[in-house]
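We modelled the chain as a single entity of 80 amino acids. Its sequence is:
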Amino acid sequence: MTAPDHEIPLRQILAENVRLLRTGIGVSQEDLAVQAGFHRTYVSQIEREKVNLTLDNLAKLAEALKVTPAKLLSPPKTKK
């Protein structure tokens, strides 16, 4: 089963949400990595869609950003 062309790939959604949330709270990639218990370059790889997160790491990332894992995977609201 393939996704329709109009759907945004999940890694892209995650990358955009992490970047928006992180910059929204004024935290650097390195600081977020430390808060989540990741290597300092891991957040950069997430934001560039280069890694496939485990559910455990998704949960750690969400906790560090103070959101639910579902929030990180939810497509951005479209403007009308």
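As a brief sanity check on the tokenised model: The first helix runs from residue 10 to 24. The CA atoms of residues 51 and 80 lie 32 Å apart.
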